[in-house]
Design goal:
alpha/beta, 7 strands
Length: 134
């Protein structure tokens, strides 16, 4: 009996980006949405996040994060075919936000839901941000 070669297993698909955006309107918002990463690794989490953002947010070239929130935060990261500069800050009041910068589009701030938060609590926070608006 001849052995049948099996194709190699395909790599697991990356987890989906858990992102909810606040509605755009006439009211200025403090945050533009909520993001619930799967881990505290920016190297793993940031490229899929940037890839999931709306095109009208522009090309993200800079990201500011809280140093205590993330396990790794190199000075730069390659996302797609462009370099994104990372800036770490230690301001306590901004611990749970990430600031995204795009030329000619300004800044967008996302509430960062801690990855270890229980699903029900995380969904509640994300829904609250997504339903906030005019």
């Amino acid at each position: 009996m001849a052995a049948v070669a099996q194709p190699p297993p395909s790599p697991p698909s990356p987890p989906s980006v858990r992102l909810r955006l606040a509605p755009r309107g006439a009211v200025a918002l403090r945050v533009d949405g909520a993001w619930w990463p799967h881990s505290r690794s920016l190297l793993a989490e940031l490229p899929p996040l940037i890839g999931a953002l709306p095109e009208e947010w522009g090309k993200i070239v800079g990201v500011t994060v809280n140093a205590q929130m993330w396990a790794d935060a190199p000075g730069r990261i390659l996302v797609g075919h462009h370099v994104v500069r990372l800036r770490r800050e230690s301001v306590w009041r901004r611990r749970y936000t990430v600031c995204l910068l795009a030329p000619d589009q300004g800044r967008r701030d996302l509430l960062v839901v801690p990855p270890e938060l229980a699903a029900a609590d995380a969904e509640y926070l994300m829904s609250a941000v997504a339903s906030y608006g005019p």
